[in-house]
Amino acid sequence: MPLYYAADALNSIMYKGLGFKAIYIDLLVLLLFAFIFYILNFISLRRSRSI
Predict the structure, then answer these.
(1) Would you say the C-alpha torsion 46, 36, 13, 22 has a positive or negative sign?
(2) For the chain, where are the E strands, in sequence order?
(3) Which of 5, 6, 13, 24 is most open to solvent, judged by the fewest CB atoms within 10 Å of its CB?
């Protein structure tokens, strides 16, 4: 879930000293989650407004 990917990215940066190349997959997954939640929120708000 999103918290896992955020924690993994922070762990890689803070404790392992890795850079962007090491965390770009985590960031892409987090962006995907954000996009999905944005779309679901948009659909939900449109549906509640039309009632």
Answers:
(1) negative
(2) none
(3) 24
Q: What string of pLDDT tens digits covers the 51 residues of the chain?
A: 889 999 999 999 999 999 999 999 999 999 999 999 999 999 999 888 765
Q: How far apart are CA 38 and CA 11, in angstroms?
A: 26
Distance CA 45, CA 29 (A): 24
Let me know: does 20 contact 6? Beta carbons within 8 Å. no
Q: Tell me, what's the pLDDT at 48?
A: 82
> Measured between alpha carbons, how far is residue 18 from residues 28, 33, 36 in Å?
17, 23, 28
